[in-house]
Design a protein that fits this description.
Order of helices and strands: EHEEHEEEE
Number of domains: 1
Radius of gyration: 13 Å
CATH superfamily: Beta-grasp domain
CATH topology: Ubiquitin-like (UB roll)
Number of strands: 7
Structural class: alpha+beta
Strand content: 35-45%
Number of helices: 2
Length: 93
């Protein structure tokens, strides 16, 4: 059993450009996101929901509360209602 209390937040995820085509949605609420979370784990969580996003893997950045976060081991702390944006490269690709 996991005795660590883990905080979970419901965040609002916005998809831009190519990611809208891949997910079919412009925004959605994602519940029970563990926090703090690494940006890589956050991306993996979005990939579980929308596997087609994997084509953006090496080019996408996330924006958390309008601050850009590269996907990697950077840790972000999320609160309920925080906005997370999936921002693919703006050029064609």
């Amino acid at each position: 059993l996991d005795t660590q209390p883990q905080y979970r937040s419901t965040v609002v995820v916005f998809y831009f450009a190519k990611s809208v085509e891949l997910t079919g949605v412009k925004q959605e609420d994602v519940a029970a996101v563990p926090t703090p979370i690494s940006s890589q784990d956050l991306w993996n969580l979005l990939l579980q929901r929308h596997p087609r996003l994997s084509v953006l893997q090496d080019h996408v950045v996330l924006a958390v509360r309008q601050q850009y976060v590269a996907i990697g081991d950077q840790v972000v702390t999320l609160g309920d209602g925080d906005e997370v944006a999936v921002v693919p490269p703006l050029s064609g690709g």
